[in-house]
From TrEMBL:
It comes from Catenulispora pinistramenti. Belongs to the drug/metabolite transporter (DMT) superfamily. Small multidrug resistance (SMR) (TC 2.A.7.1) family. InterPro entries: EmrE-like, Small_drug/metabolite_transptr, Small_multidrug_res. This is Multidrug efflux SMR transporter. It is found in: Cell membrane. Keywords: Cell membrane, Membrane, Transmembrane, Transmembrane helix, Transport. It comes from the Bacteria. It holds the Pfam family Multi_Drug_Res. It is a multi-pass membrane protein. The chain crosses the membrane at residues 33-50, 57-78, 84-103. Signal peptide: none annotated. The keyword Oxidoreductase does not apply.
Length: 106
């Protein structure tokens, strides 16, 4: 169940990051409300995952999925470019997350 909580927390992390861009410095009400709610939900579900997972593994995977999801969706929503170096970095993040997952034994 911890891995499901971690996946849910990661979805909230991506929504939080994308929402932060939409707030325009927290000057827009509804994007700001959305961003604050998704941040709280992400931290809450991450805390549920960390009841079982090691904090180093859980946090690293949470931020890794959040980073990759934010860049990919940022390219779709905000038309940001995905370059070769970004793809290399994504690959390293995915490889690191997989190794952490295997090393955790959970």
């Amino acid at each position: 169940m911890a891995w499901i909580y971690l996946l849910i927390a990661s979805v909230f992390e991506v929504a939080f990051a994308l929402g932060t861009n939409a707030t325009h410095g927290f000057t827009r009400l509804w994007p700001s409300v959305f961003t604050l709610l998704t941040a709280a939900a992400g931290i809450f579900t991450l805390s549920l995952a960390l009841r079982t997972l090691d904090v180093g593994v859980g946090y690293t995977i949470w931020t890794g999925i959040g980073s990759i999801g934010t860049v990919v969706l940022g390219s779709v929503i905000y038309k940001e470019r995905i370059t070769g170096p970004k793809v290399v970095a994504f690959s390293a993040i995915i490889a690191g997350a997989l190794v952490l997952r295997l090393a955790s034994g959970g």
